[in-house]
């Protein structure tokens, strides 16, 4: 049987066929604990299908999908419509698939800025609020594997960067594996250990910078997309002090940001830190 | 006390209402009203078979309902028809086969009206025992699968991904539905069982803020409908089964009046004050 040190999930030559057509074919990949793996690819390239195979929602028609025994999953699906006939508060929604420690739930809600929504009915939330509640619910489960299917949809760029920061800090805190699905080719966070580029099959994979420069990636998305691929770096180059001054990696402290460090920013979990990036750049 | 037919009717009705309320919530949440209808239509085939083979009507109805549920699951996988078309097909085929079988048994005189509209005033001590014992089993089973069934109702894939085994919960839910149809048929009859499943749940929806709360409220609304319906039937000499449904309808109408909303706001305000 699989041991604790084995990957959380492994796909080996896995594929799904619907009405004689391969939706995704011969995918081999794995996610280990503490690893962030990003699936990117154009619409209809089989990203969600691949994730669903990995989660055991869809059985592969070829190859095998293996999950570690007793794997605890936190899943943020791409689409989730709550029927209006359901009376459901956010607080109850947090406990949907298992009991969640009260303090864990509160921590997850405050990290996603949804604390004030706890007593609201889920159907009254806006798209962005609901997206954050979904994330809070997944985190509060303290999962071994966090699967996020396009978590940044409907989130503006600033929120997107904050979200990537949050995902990284969750990974650091829980030591969980993260499988992230994104159709956004222009922002791939540097915290990603591996990018897998899908187009019905694995067309290339590796570190974000390796994928960005690969010929297959350019062929799939065009050279322009490649040139525009922004890699959000988390270089721990400087730190913002509460009084507004900046401490650099060498320990020196300066009053104003220098041009060199304007775009390199320490990954913090809060939206405030992100706003500061904007100010630094401007 | 059980010698009085009216007391027996109240006991039987209250027992059914307590079980039907929580199950009815899932019928409303999952938009399965037509599924309840299908099972109750098929119940008439169960009655025919029970008379033909001289077995217990409750058991035969349960058996036929289970078969129809499984047939639905199989057809959903195989046939390229939508669920509502399949349900319509199953409901009316089973009803028609039941009526044909009944008509062939010329040696048996069947009170068809009794099965269509129920005969709560004729319940026996054995019926009451079956309702309360069967109902307790159904409620315990529902409590056991509650979390996974509710998670699957909110989102099937989410429940599946997070290890809730929703398929198992769905099949158990279908069996429970079949059991409830079988034990409640005598109370309101096959034509009105769906009403008893849906109306109390619909009345509870306006007042409830959580699923568990809605299940309990729905059971209480059902109990109120049974008691007031039966007393109404006694007072005005109206048929008992339909009177219960009419009472449930009145409770639903009361629930959609603006008053409960005002009450709920008041409750919310006072609970906020308590925090």
Any overview of this molecule?
The complex is a heterodimer of chains A (282) and B (275). In chain A, α3 (102-111) packs across α4. Helices cover 30% and strands 25% of the residues of chain A. By secondary structure, chain A is of the alpha/beta class. The termini of chain A are far apart. Chain A is globular, with a radius of gyration of 20 Å. With 275 residues, chain B is an all-alpha fold. Chain B has a single domain (5-274), classed as ABC transporter involved in vitamin B12 uptake, BtuC, CATH 1.10.3470.10. Chain B is globular. Classes of the chains: A alpha/beta (282), B mainly alpha (275). Chains A and B meet through β5 of A and α6, α7 and α10 of B.
Produce a short descriptive summary.
The complex is a heterodimer of chains A (282) and B (275). Chain A is of the alpha/beta class and 282 residues long. Chain A is built from eight helices and 14 strands.
């Amino acid at each position: 049987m699989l041991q604790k040190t084995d990957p959380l999930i492994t796909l080996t030559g896995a594929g799904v066929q619907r009405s004689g057509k391969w939706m995704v074919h011969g995918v081999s990949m794995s996610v280990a604990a503490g690893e962030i793996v990003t699936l990117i690819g154009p619409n209809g390239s089989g990203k969600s299908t691949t994730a669903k195979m990995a989660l055991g929602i869809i059985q592969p028609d070829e190859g095998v999908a293996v999950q570690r025994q007793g794997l605890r999953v936190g899943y943020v699906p791409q689409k989730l419509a709550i029927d209006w006939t359901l009376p459901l508060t956010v607080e109850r929604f947090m406990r949907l698939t298992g009991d969640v420690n009260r303090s864990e739930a509160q921590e997850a809600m405050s990290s996603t800025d949804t604390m004030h929504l706890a007593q609201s009915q889920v159907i009254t939330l806006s798209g962005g609020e609901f997206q954050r509640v979904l994330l809070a619910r997944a985190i509060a489960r303290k999962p071994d594997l966090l699967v996020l299917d396009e978590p940044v949809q409907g989130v503006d760029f600033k929120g997107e960067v904050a979200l990537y920061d949050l995902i990284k800090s969750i990974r650091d805190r829980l030591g969980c594996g993260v499988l992230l699905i994104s159709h956004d080719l222009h922002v791939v966070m540097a915290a990603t250990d591996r990018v897998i580029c899908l187009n019905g099959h694995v067309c290339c994979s590796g570190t974000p910078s390796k994928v960005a420069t690969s010929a297959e990636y350019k062929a799939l998305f065009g050279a322009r997309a490649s040139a525009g691929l922004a890699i959000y770096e988390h270089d721990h180059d400087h730190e913002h002090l509460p009084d507004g001054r900046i401490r650099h990696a060498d320990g020196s402290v300066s009053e104003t940001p220098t041009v060199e460090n304007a775009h390199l920013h320490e990954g913090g979990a809060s939206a405030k830190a992100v706003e500061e990036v904007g100010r630094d750049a401007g | 006390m059980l010698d009085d037919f009216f007391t027996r009717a109240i006991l039987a009705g209250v027992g059914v209402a307590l079980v039907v309320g929580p199950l009815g919530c899932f019928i409303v949440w999952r938009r399965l009203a037509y599924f309840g209808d299908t099972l109750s239509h098929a119940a008439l085939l169960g009655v025919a078979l029970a008379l033909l083979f001289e077995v217990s009507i409750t058991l035969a109805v349960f058996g036929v309902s289970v078969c129809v549920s499984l047939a639905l699951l199989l057809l959903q996988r195989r046939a390229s028809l939508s669920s509502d078309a399949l349900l319509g097909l199953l409901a009316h085929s089973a009803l028609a086969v039941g009526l044909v079988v009944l008509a062939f048994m010329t040696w048996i005189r069947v009170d068809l009206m009794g099965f269509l509209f129920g005969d709560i005033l004729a319940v026996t001590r054995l019926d009451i025992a079956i309702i309360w014992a069967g109902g307790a089993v159904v409620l315990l089973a529902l409590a056991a699968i509650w979390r996974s069934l509710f998670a699957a109702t909110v989102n099937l894939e989410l429940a599946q991904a997070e290890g809730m085994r929703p398929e198992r919960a769905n099949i158990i839910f279908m069996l429970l539905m079949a059991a409830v149809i079988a034990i409640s048929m005598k109370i309101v009859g096959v034509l009105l069982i769906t009403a008893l499943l849906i109306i109390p749940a619909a009345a509870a929806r306006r007042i409830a803020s959580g699923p568990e709360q809605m299940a309990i409220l729905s059971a209480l609304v059902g109990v109120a409908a049974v008691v007031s319906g039966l007393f109404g039937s006694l007072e005005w000499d109206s048929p008992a089964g339909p009177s219960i449904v009419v009472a449930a309808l009145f409770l639903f109408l009361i629930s959609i009046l603006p008053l409960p909303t005002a009450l709920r706001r008041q409750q919310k305000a006072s609970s906020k004050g308590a925090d």
